[in-house]
């Protein structure tokens, strides 16, 4: 390793060791690791071709990969060797690892799930490609200015991205606009704009390097030659125009995972990467097959939400307009290739495109969508329409064009059947299935939590990393005092580290012996960070009322970004920061209560916070969080959950045991009923003196003396339109928190409960999730076991 790193310092970076910077060392280390991936990667590709195995294509507008160096080293089994080599070269390994910017090509859970799936696909040896966009700017960077969120552009690609291979020879012409001509039953799309999609490949190597897949991200370029004529005339802007316009498509990730933002460009992004991916997989298929009717035997395409739902009409277009198949047959072939995963029930997140826009950007696709709609309604009279109120409903389109539709937790999948797709479910009662989300144990325990990972490996060997259910063996240890002490010591080591990081990042001193209570996720009303901060104020009040009481010291930790246009979410951020300022400077509560909100939450920050958490906040309004995956990461790392019966919380609680989970709040059913009661929020506030007092303080400007009216709108909305039932669940939440306080006072009691969480979270490995998709949706499997067998 040492020689390989030095080789890259010299021949890839053109430096000598004495004059190399941290950046140089990082790139050299990354390139040395990448070299070690290549042979595994080629071998996997060769075996896939040789065995004629079915390939899985995961289409996702987001891949939230985070940093890669530690993950890549770990999967190659070179984590220790890499560290030793760097140290032997006189460099600081931590500093080098921390120099890598996060690949933040996603917003939150949906994008991070795609990244975990890539890891599991490679670990399981399933031939797969991830397809997405190589955004120049990932998710914006968040700063706080006087407590308010400020966004700046993220710039990960201003540095060299050492993991990827540029593929200038892989390029496709993606068309937009124009019109369609029909001649003798044949359609010809005369487009008005062309953009080139070019590929960048990142190898994804599974655990122990046994298999390698590819993450192929598309970048947009102008198709034509540079406009030298304008340039020579001195019109430099005109000379650069077509390049700039084309590149716009892969310029930025839309900073919003729940609203249908940025109309035309967003639709172009979706079509751009979907069409390029389908052209690419068709080229691969046709290179050694000639029967298009057999496509579904060799190709499984998974749509990560509706963002790539244009895949249905696009693949039909390729089969009909390019390869001459008949429309009904093409529709059937495509359906047998496609699966669609739904990730949300929030109506504002279900994509709809105005037919005018669709006709303008993708005129041929609009025709095909009408044909698909017609075909479906001929077969199923009374079926819901894809086009409704002049909008193409991408959820309906994805449903109709997929042979399987899945939700992401047991509860969510049932709600999908009962709500968004109620009518389509009646027509296709076996189409909707469930695949509960999972997380990769490689990143989310082995790499991010070394103290705990080492302890577990010492106790039960390292088989758990690829077979997480082996953690069950730890259940036997829950009565073993000595083991519990070591388990606690691992947590404490993580907390000490985090306390130091918090001091550096936020300037706040926190006591590692206090309970670390963490809520990290996008800021959204349904996730109810507001309820958490209101409870924090209520606790502050009670401590101040009785400062000599027997309080359990807490550090409330928040992390997360708000979509730049989401006004209420930004107010909530401001309120959390205002409350933090007041409480952290209160000598009465002192170390008993602290509130910290480090800015710019991302994957790397999650890897720091989760191993150090005692309490995981999963407090969404029941029925709103499709699954959650942070909830799984915390429980796996030995945090206890305070949560509602929502998303995967339900299944986590079943696995870890109800006695090791702090449950509160209304159920999804009760939420529905409560909303129908007139004035429910006002009634709940009036019935809760504690909540009334907190809201009164906020309105009186206790936390914003410089601008007393700052939160009047926020609080006013709670009284009148508390859609997410913060007020109704408040007391139940407060009481559950006090049960948490009591439980935390027994150190070994708490440690035993925490261990039960770690021991019983094995089922939530994304390896299990991927096996479910492979078995129930893709009918695909690893090459080396002859395909399906192992999984079935
Ligand atoms: C998210 N959906 C859900 O809100 C989470 O509950 C879930 O864990 C993840 O997907 C992964 O399934 C979205 O981000 C989106 F875009 F659909 F709103």
From TrEMBL:
GO terms for biological process: glycogen catabolic process. InterPro entries: Glycg_phsphrylas, Glyco_trans_35, Pyridoxal_P_attach_site. Keywords: Allosteric enzyme, Carbohydrate metabolism, Glycosyltransferase, Pyridoxal phosphate, Transferase. It comes from the Bacteria. Its cofactor is pyridoxal 5'-phosphate. The keyword Glycosyltransferase applies. The modification N6-(pyridoxal phosphate)lysine is found at residue 633. Its EC number is 2.4.1.1. One of its GO terms (cellular component) is cytoplasm. Coiled coil: none annotated. One of its GO terms (molecular function) is glycogen phosphorylase activity. The keyword Glycosyltransferase applies. SUPFAM superfamilies: UDP-Glycosyltransferase/glycogen phosphorylase. Allosteric enzyme that catalyzes the rate-limiting step in glycogen catabolism, the phosphorolytic cleavage of glycogen to produce glucose-1-phosphate, and plays a central role in maintaining cellular and organismal glucose homeostasis. Belongs to the glycogen phosphorylase family. This is Alpha-1,4 glucan phosphorylase. It comes from Marinovum algicola. The lineage of its organism: Bacteria, Pseudomonadati, Pseudomonadota, Alphaproteobacteria, Rhodobacterales.
């Amino acid at each position: 390793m040492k020689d390989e790193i030095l080789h890259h310092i010299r021949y890839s970076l053109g430096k000598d060791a004495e004059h190399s910077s941290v950046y140089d060392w990082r790139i050299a280390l990354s390139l040395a690791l990448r070299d070690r991936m290549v042979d595994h990667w080629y071998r996997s590709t060769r075996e896939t071709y040789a065995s004629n195995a079915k390939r899985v294509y995961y289409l996702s507008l987001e891949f939230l990969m985070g940093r890669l160096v530690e993950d890549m080293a770990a999967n190659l089994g070179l984590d220790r060797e890499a560290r030793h080599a760097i140290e032997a070269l006189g460099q600081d390994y931590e500093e080098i690892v921390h120099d890598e910017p996060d690949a933040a090509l996603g917003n939150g859970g949906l994008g991070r799930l795609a990244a975990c799936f890539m890891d599991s696909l490679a670990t399981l040896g399933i031939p797969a490609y991830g397809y997405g966009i190589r955004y120049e700017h990932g998710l914006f960077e968040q700063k706080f200015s006087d407590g308010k969120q400020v966004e700046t552009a993220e710039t990960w690609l201003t540095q060299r991205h050492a993991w990827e291979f540029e593929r200038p020879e892989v390029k496709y012409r993606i068309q937009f606009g124009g019109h369609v001509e029909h001649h003798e039953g044949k359609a010809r799309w005369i487009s008005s704009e062309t953009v080139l999609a070019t590929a960048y490949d990142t190898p994804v190597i599974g655990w122990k390097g046994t298999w390698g897949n590819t993450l192929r991200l598309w970048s947009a370029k102008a198709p034509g030659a540079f406009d030298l004529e304008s340039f020579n005339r001195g019109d430099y802007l005109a000379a650069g125009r077509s390049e700039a316009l084309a590149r716009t498509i892969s310029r930025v990730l839309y900073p919003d995972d729940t609203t249908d933002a940025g109309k035309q460009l967003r639709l172009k992004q979706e079509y751009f990467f979907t069409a390029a991916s389908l052209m690419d997989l068709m080229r691969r298929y046709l290179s050694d097959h000639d029967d298009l009717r057999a496509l579904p035997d060799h190709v499984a395409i998974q749509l990560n939400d509706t963002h790539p739902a244009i895949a249905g009409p696009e693949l039909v277009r390729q089969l009909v307009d390019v390869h001459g198949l008949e429309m009904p047959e093409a529709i059937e072939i495509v359906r047998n290739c496609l699966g669609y995963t739904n990730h949300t029930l929030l109506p504002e997140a279900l994509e709809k495109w105005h037919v005018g826009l669709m006709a303008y950007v993708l005129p041929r696709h609009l025709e095909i969508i009408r044909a698909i709609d017609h075909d479906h309604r001929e077969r199923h009279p009374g079926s819901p329409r894809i086009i409704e109120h002049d909008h193409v409903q991408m959820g309906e389109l994805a449903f109709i064009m997929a042979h399987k539709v899945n939700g992401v937790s047991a509860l969510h999948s049932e709600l999908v059947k009962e709500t968004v797709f109620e009518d389509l479910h009646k027509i296709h009662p076996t189409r909707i299935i469930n695949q509960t989300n999972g997380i990769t144990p490689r990143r989310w325990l082995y790499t991010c939590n070394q103290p705990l990972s080492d302890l577990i490996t010492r106790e039960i060997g390292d088989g758990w990393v690829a077979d997480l259910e082996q953690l069950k063996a730890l259940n036997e240890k829950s009565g073993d005092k000595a083991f519990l002490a070591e388990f606690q010591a691992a947590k404490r080591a993580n907390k000490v580290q985090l306390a130091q990081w918090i001091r550096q990042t936020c300037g706040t001193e926190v006591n590692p012996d206090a309970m670390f209570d963490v809520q990290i996720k996008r800021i959204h009303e349904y996730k109810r960070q507001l309820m958490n901060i209101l409870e924090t104020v209520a606790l502050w009040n009670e401590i101040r009322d009785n400062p000599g009481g027997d309080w359990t010291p807490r550090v409330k930790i928040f992390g997360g970004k708000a979509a730049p246009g989401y006004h209420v979410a930004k107010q909530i951020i401001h309120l959390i920061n205002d409350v933090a300022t007041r409480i952290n400077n209160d000598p009465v509560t002192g170390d008993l209560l602290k509130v910290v909100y480090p800015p710019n939450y991302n994957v790397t920050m999650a890897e720091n916070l989760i191993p150090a958490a005692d309490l995981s906040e999963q407090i969404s309004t029941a029925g709103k969080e499709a699954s959650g995956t942070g909830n799984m990461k915390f429980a796996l790392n030995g945090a206890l959950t305070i949560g509602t019966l929502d998303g995967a919380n339900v299944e986590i609680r079943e696995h870890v045991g109800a006695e090791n989970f702090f449950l509160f709040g209304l159920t999804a059913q009760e939420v529905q009923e409560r909303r129908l009661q007139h004035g429910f929020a006002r009634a709940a506030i009036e019935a809760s003196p504690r909540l009334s007092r907190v809201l009164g303080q906020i309105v009186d400007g206790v936390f914003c003396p410089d601008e007393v009216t700052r939160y009047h709108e926020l609080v006013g909305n709670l009284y009148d339109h508390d859609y997410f039932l913060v007020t109704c669940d408040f007391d139940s939440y407060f009481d559950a928190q006090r049960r948490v306080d009591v439980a935390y006072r027994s150190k070994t009691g708490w440690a035993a409960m925490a261990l039960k969480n770690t021991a019983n979270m094995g089922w939530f490995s994304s390896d299990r999730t991927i096996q479910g998709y492979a078995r129930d949706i893709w009918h695909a499997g690893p090459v080396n076991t002859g395909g399906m067998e192992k999984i079935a």
